[in-house]
Amino acid sequence: MMEFQNIRVSLNKPKAKLFWLSFIVLFTTLLFSSTFTQAQATEFSSTEPTKIKPKGKILIVMTNHAKYPSREDTTGLWVTELTHFYDVATAAGYEMDFISPKGGSIPLDERSQKSSYMDKEARAHLADPDFMTRLNHTMKPSEVKASDYKAIYFTGGHGVMWDFPNNAELVSLSEQIYRQGGVVSAVCHGVAGLLALKDEQGQPLIAKHKITGFSNEEEALSGMKKQVPFFLEHELKAKGAIYKQSLIPFTSFVIVDDRIITGQNPQSPREVGQAVMTRLAQIQ
Question: What are φ and ψ of residue 28, in 5° steps?
């Protein structure tokens, strides 16, 4: 009883009242703050990361052909003609599917893997198990639908000169993508994939269009004149294309003619990718 009276007395003093009032306010503030923080943590932890919706899909075509007529080294995909375009399209928010005339594994051109042609990004892709799995398990043209894609891109490497032209399935896919308002693009020897394409009137699609591709001069400078089944520049002109080339061989050169976009050589795929992204943005 004596202790209780002492407490009552102390509470009647001004300083004691101030002390206990401050204590109650501080305790209430800390309790509320802790409860609010826990509620926030629960709210944020239950929120799933926001997924960015892809802008669309692009179909990338690669060769299955690896042999030259008389050279000991092998041809196939020119590595950076894939990786440079791929990196640009990925950064722009597009997904890509890989196909080849026969499906399955893609041979890599030996010369294209020399240090003078490769960069750190290309080396990183070749060291990536997931990327290499995709290269070793490409789909066949019959396994994809043109309606799923906003663009098609033909990669290069001398191998395409044997298995791109006159491939009926690739022709059909390309023509459908173009007729549904998509972009048809290619680089270097990959432009051979456009030779057999026809418009809705049955005329060569590239006729009267400005087109570039690996030049006769570059073929001679690369020492391949006796290895190729035909000269790409000659065949493009024979189809009625308005062929253009850079003033200096082996420098990046890209031609945009509405929804047909072509690059001249191995130095051009990054710029081709940028041009395709720009055109797709205009279409959308």
Answer: -65, -40
Residue type, 233: E
Residue 12's beta-bridge partner residues?
Answer: none
CB 109 within 8 A of CB 74: yes
DSSP state for residue 29 in the 8-state scheme? H
* Structure tokens given for 131: 């990327």
- To the nearest 10°, report the CA torsion of 8, 10, 15, 21: -40
Angle formed at CA 133 by CA 129 and CA 136, multiple of 5 degrees = 135
The 260-263 sheet, strands edge to edge: 94-99, 56-61, 151-154, 183-187, 260-263, 254-257
How far apart CA 29 and CA 23 sit, in angstroms, is 10
Contact 155, 98 (CB under 8 A): no
Task: Look at residue 59 and give its three-state secondary structure.
Answer: strand
Under DSSP, is residue 266 helix (H, G, I), strand (E, B) or coil? Answer: coil
pLDDT in tens, 168-187: 999 999 999 999 999 999 99
175, 193 Cβ separation under 8 angstroms: no
Query: Residue 111: which of 72, 83, 75 has the closest Cα?
Result: 75
What per-residue confidence (pLDDT) applies to 203?
98
Six-digit token string for 220: 């001679």
Question: What is the residue-wise DSSP string for 64-97?
Answer: -----SS-SS---B-HHHHHHHHHHHHHTTEEEE
Residue 231 DSSP code: -
The whole-number pLDDT of residue 51 equals 62
Q: Rounded mean pLDDT of 116-124? A: 97
End-to-end CA separation in angstroms for the chain: 85
Per the listing, tokens 């308005």 go with: 242
Distance in angstroms (rounded) separating the CA atoms of residues 106 and 91: 24
As a residue count, the chain comes to 284
Record the tokens describing residue 74, joined without a space: 């092998």
